Amino acid sequence: MMAEFIVKAKDRKYEGLDENEKGWKGPFCFIQGADPQYGMIDDMSGKKPITWQAEIELTRKAIAAINRMKPKPKFFVVCGDLIHAMPDDNQKEEQEADFLKEFAKVDPSIPLVCVCGNHDIGNTPTRKSIQNFRNKFGDDYFGFWAGGVRCLVLNSQLYEDASKVQELKKEQDVWLEAELDAAKSSGCKHLLIFQHIPWFLNKPEEENEYFNIDLDIRMPMLDKFIAAGVNTIFCGHYHRNAGGSYKGMEEVVTSAMGCPLSQSPAGFEMGKQPSGLRVVKVHEKSISHQYYGMDDIPSTVDL
Ligand SMILES: [Fe+2]
């Protein structure tokens, strides 16, 4: 069955992934993707005009694999950079429309959770750019339940540059504070965070760079997450797989559903890692995960 639209998070909640999903009913899997970023492949290879047929083909492979997966994934979260065009770029609306058209093909019984990235709301987000994201894809931060697990989705751009949206940053801070506090006594089996920009790429104390969040914001936040009992943080943005851990809390950085990247002293180029997805298995006492290229996504997940 094909939906004609996607479900949008609203009022900091996601319809269907609510109180009904609060109880543990046994192990399950979910899918994490990041950076489908419609338009980046042509942009990276210098093609003009930019099209995003390559990304559409990759999306179709991903969604076909997700829709036939057994057991059915509990949800499919896309950790930001849904599309490549920045706000005010004249291809943005067209890319967003194609993203919505393609991602509406996810089996409607597998909730699609959209997270905002820097390309979606801009490197320096504004009220207008965030409102546009909310209108098209839903709230930029919210919480949901999935099979006894509490999940919080964050707008990571507010940690990167909130210079034009100080009020909105404060609102997210207050909300997150309350959510982390509530999670402690919620009885959740795990507490997970989903966001676009990783706090760090490999080591919590690594130096500031383009792909991580500045140390002065990073360390207090990581400590806050530890105090609240966060198990795992899932991110994208890097267009390569990476990650590490801090005081027993894992941070997973997942490569792109669209254009993979590699970096040399000469600059960035298309990476050799395949475009793909991560399959995450959730057990009562543990979480495990593996990244698969689009052609290697398993049809059966062994729980
Ligand atoms: Fe990206």
List keywords for this structure.
binds fe (ii) ion, 13 strands, 303 residues, 5-stranded mixed β-sheet, 21% strand, Purple Acid Phosphatase, chain A, domain 2
Structure description:
The protein has a single domain (28-288), classed as Metallo-dependent phosphatases (Purple Acid Phosphatase, chain A, domain 2, 4-Layer Sandwich). Helices cover 28% and strands 21% of the residues. The chain contains 8 helices and 13 strands. It has helices at 40-44, 53-68, 92-103, 118-121, 127-137, 157-160, 166-184, 215-228, and strands spanning 28-33, 76-79, 112-115, 142-146, 149-153, 190-194, 232-235, 242-246, 249-253, 261-264, 267-270, 276-282, 287-293. The strands form 3 sheets. It has a 6-stranded mixed β-sheet, with helices on one face. A 5-stranded mixed β-sheet has the order 3-2-1-12-13. Strands 10-11 form a two-stranded antiparallel ribbon. The protein is globular and about 55 Å long. The site of fe (ii) ion has 7 residues, from loops.
